[in-house]
UniProtKB/TrEMBL annotation:
Annotated ranges, domain Quercetin 2,3-dioxygenase C-terminal cupin: 165-241
Name recorded for this polypeptide: Pirin
Gene3D superfamilies: Jelly Rolls
Entry-linked SUPFAM superfamilies: RmlC-like cupins (SSF51182)
Record-linked Pfam families: Pirin_C_2 (PF17954)
Signal peptide per UniProt: none
Length: 244
């Protein structure tokens, strides 16, 4: 079963310095029909003006993943050292029992980004920060795990940690990425007990015959294999969460 969310139907949160396009209810955008998708509580497409900062107040028991689409972004979280994330880099703040101040500042050229909030499996623990400058592309052009809460995806399990290793999450979820060439496809194998939420960052793809353009998303349930075909070269991000 699939459910499509078109870019033009997304909510919006705006100020003089930033704009968020929201897949789920967030801040001043309230939508009783789009509250979350399982443990995926927030998916925002953000744009920040040059050198401006997007601030949030205290948050707890969520993993906030920020993937930079274009430009650069500096994460400024509580007393952590600032982390600079460039294009296609990833930043995690796992808020644990509480983070009091969260901020992301755009570089001199401005920035666009996608931010995923996953509900953590526990409300306890100290906040922690982790980032990756970039991720190598999957050898087969398929999906690559960017972040995961599953031990089998943890590079420490095999004793080797590289810059492209997945970020470790507090929730039993995954965030994946694929760059798909025109006329080709990417597949992700899962179980019927998982829910998938795929967002098109750029390009045009088809999922079960449904065309999706940049900014569109599709929620997929009760499938063992998700197949994504690209009509033109595309970048997609995929959230894999427990069925809700």
């Amino acid at each position: 079963m699939i459910r499509v969310r078109r870019a033009e139907t997304l909510g919006a949160v705006r100020s003089e310095t930033f704009e968020l396009r929201c897949h789920f209810a967030f801040a001043t955008y309230q939508d009783p029909f789009h509250q979350h998708d399982g443990q995926l509580r927030v998916l925002n497409l953000g744009a920040l003006h040059p050198s401006e900062t997007y601030f949030l107040g205290a948050e707890a028991a969520v993993d906030i993943l920020t993937w930079v689409q274009a430009g650069s972004l500096t994460a400024q979280i509580d007393d952590f050292a600032p982390e600079v994330i460039q294009t296609e880099g990833l930043h995690l703040i796992s808020t644990g029992s509480c983070c009091h101040t969260l901020g992301w500042k755009a570089g001199a050229e401005g920035t666009s980004f996608l931010q995923f909030w996953f509900l953590a499996d526990t409300e306890e623990g100290l906040p922690r920060q982790e980032s990756r400058k970039s991720f190598p592309q999957a050898d087969d052009g398929g999906f690559r795990v960017l972040a995961s809460g599953f031990p089998e995806d943890d590079p420490e399990e095999c004793g080797t940690i590289t810059d492209g290793a997945p970020v470790t999450l507090s929730a039993g979820v995954r965030l994946l990425h694929a760059t798909i060439r025109a006329g080709e496809g990417a597949a992700y194998n899962t179980t019927l007990a998982r829910d998938l939420y795929l967002v098109v960052v750029s390009g045009v793809v088809r999922v079960e015959g449904t065309m999706l353009n940049a900014g569109d998303a599709v929620a997929v349930r009760s499938v063992a294999t998700l197949a994504v075909m690209a009509d033109e070269q595309a970048v997609v991000l995929l959230a894999d969460v427990a069925a809700g």
